[in-house]
């Protein structure tokens, strides 16, 4: 990401600030290799061969660069979308502002080391009598492009009429309570939250490890309200690449905002000075919706109806009347209630969202139906001008509604990035 | 499911040589030329011929010169039993042989076989410096051992009451006596279940049975009382068996391996019991008296914490502060559900309320998991 390279830190400063004892998880591989090499020292050629294959393995791991944690914007928004997701919404269980700030600081420190492929605290070792600081299941794994992105929900600013943390006056106008949409069937146990953390990585073990350690660090101050695992990204921030498919087998969001398209990001995704409170400048608003798909009924729907519903062909993903998936859609060629036609910016006064959703499958639902769907994540500069009008339109007339239901919903204000070591998540809000 | 641990008999391997040895020592009369230590036990004294001797196999020759049956214990720090001999009648002699390492110990004579006994310090010298622990922690362990024993002692009459009601066929009285009969056990659960052969007999749940294991204990009776609503002859036998098994526990509970760190981790384990068994309603699934067990676990954890808190608070004041707060918060939450002597039936506790309980348990158990390390840190 361009802004992150521009913002890259003086490495000496960064290393100087690193928490003590924060060991590289990859070093584990190095040590294991050293052990093998020593054991085989008598047979020099074997030792050499072992070392070289270790180096190759090490090099292969390093081939995928880590995603910079520090920057003007939070990573995990415009960043190229990873393969896996673990998203968690938290409630703050304390009324102590200090305790909350302490957790946010500890979280930031842990996030910086985990996104760098290192162990939390003093690592997965320590005193025999105590549990280790790091839970250890990511040992030996690379950072896997892990990003951790934090957001603040409306209830952090005011809950049940109470201003628990003295933040009420700082609530952005844009951080609205989302209005009810027709056909919503929202489960409160899968909705809302005072805080959220989005963990994306190419390896699910790495993403789960990150959320698990943050949840543990936060115990007593924050509690997990709900969480969602996701796989198979359903849209990408690299639209020049092939568009991924959702569980209905369709390409959707072909013209998603590109993570490299700075003008569009500035116009539609990043909160600008004057948009709201200054603490949100450089941030973005996140809408999370758990959208259940009626998979079985969809699967017995005729191909022509499926294609009419999306307004695209299934195999190629070409918009109606076009040949290729990236061809500019001719909205008029699609049925009036086609999903693509209704969701397109041209049907919504140019409103654009940066979509970052994932498919989810949580086994079956007890009736033997696949408990599956789309975990929709969308970032935008102003939810009131982007998600809300688009969803109003879709909820009213989208042909897809017969096959989907929105069952969870949440809205978060994601602050700008942590610019350098020593700063912390939410500093601009609490500071 | 109880966690199976090594049988405690192993810990007792140091103790008690049998009667065969007694006969042998008998011939030497009161001679101490073999290096044995003479113990004069009376109703008011516990005198040793020597209070300092070399490490190795040590013989204590006990003469009960009092009017009551007595028993003699050799305790290491924290009242950990190194050797013991019970039932020494008035005017009789007994020998205790034990392998004793260098260190400080106490010999206790207990006329009437009750109480802490009349204590005498001894020093065992020899190779290897005696382990120098923090005397405050030794005291904490000793006090905790006393607490565990008190809980076991207090449990017996309550279990007897429960058993009597069952044997009388009094369903209502048996139901009322069920939860109280478990409290002492729940307060000391990590120690209670450390006797691998007692826990499966008294506190196993139906789905925790091993193949061919007969289901006995509290939860079998719980099922009869609440689900069948009837007391069978077999239940009456089980009630007696429960009393017998718990009396066995009462007898051995003082021999459990206890250290300051195991106390700290035991406190955490009590919260783990709550987090996995009680908060889900799995523990007392027929009677729904889970909150009573829950409270017992929390009380037991608090007791263990309070005993080592002086040391913990000095070494990690922040942690102690957090633990104080979280214990108070969890107890305040429990208090809301207290109804007279009992607690709200757990089937009346909503999912949202259970989440609140779960969050409060996590908030306490997470810092509690750091207590053991805080205690041992230099």
TrEMBL record, chain A:
InterPro entries: Dimeric_a/b-barrel, Dyp_perox_C, Dyp_perox_N, Dyp_peroxidase, EfeB/EfeN, TAT_signal. It catalyses: heme b + 2 H(+) = protoporphyrin IX + Fe(2+). GO terms for cellular component: cell envelope; cytosol. Keywords: Heme, Iron, Lyase, Metal-binding, Oxidoreductase, Peroxidase, Signal. Residues 74-231 form the Dyp-type peroxidase N-terminal domain. Residues 243-418 form the Dyp-type peroxidase C-terminal domain. This is Deferrochelatase. It is found in: Cell envelope. Belongs to the DyP-type peroxidase family. GO terms for biological process: iron import into cell. It comes from Kitasatospora gansuensis.
UniProtKB/TrEMBL annotation, chain B:
One of its GO terms (cellular component) is periplasmic space. It is found in: Periplasm. InterPro entries: Cupredoxin, EfeM/EfeO_iron_uptake, EfeO_Cupredoxin, Imelysin-like, Imelysin-like_EfeO/Algp7, Imelysin_sf, Iron_uptake_EfeM/EfeO. Residues 1-22 form the signal peptide. It holds the Pfam family Peptidase_M75. Residues 16-124 form the EfeO-type cupredoxin-like domain. Transmembrane segments: none annotated. Residues 140-371 form the Imelysin-like domain. Its main location: periplasm. CDD domains: Imelysin-like_EfeO. PROSITE patterns: PROKAR_LIPOPROTEIN. Keywords: Signal. NCBIfam families: EfeO (NF041757). Belongs to the EfeM/EfeO family. This is Iron uptake system component EfeO. It comes from Kitasatospora gansuensis.
